[in-house]
Amino acid sequence: MVRAVLILLVFMGANVKADLQVQYDRWTKAYMAFDVETLDDILAPDYVLVNVVKEETSRDKYMAYLKLRKELHQDTMKYSSKIKKVEQQSDDAAVVIDVETQELLVDGKRVLHRHEYRDSWARLDGKWKLRRTETLKESTQVKASA
Known about the structure:
The protein is α+β, with helices and mostly antiparallel strands. It has three helices and six strands. The protein has a single domain (2-145), classed as Nuclear Transport Factor 2, Chain: A (Roll), CATH 3.10.450.50.
């Protein structure tokens, strides 16, 4: 009996991980394409971004940044997200992204920016929505000229 419950919990966790990875893949594709509408759809109405020094950015301010990024067409050469771990509690999930990597070209130099996040998701109206992003670690490396 205990073994069956454990197998069921592992299976449920795998489904949540797969469902959330779909959302991260949507985010990556939309971010690269400047598709602000899709990014807006992924964020919950009460979304908050917390940076590494614990300063909070509201959903409205974050959306303004995404729209400005689109207007300025701030190119990103590469962007990826990979889920490290999922912890589920009812319809909520806490996700740590092992590494989110963004590669940019700045003044002719390749800049590699990496984050590790703890994301809190909630299932709202049948869809996973991102409610909170807490930055756990971040680093920036400047590579040789492109």
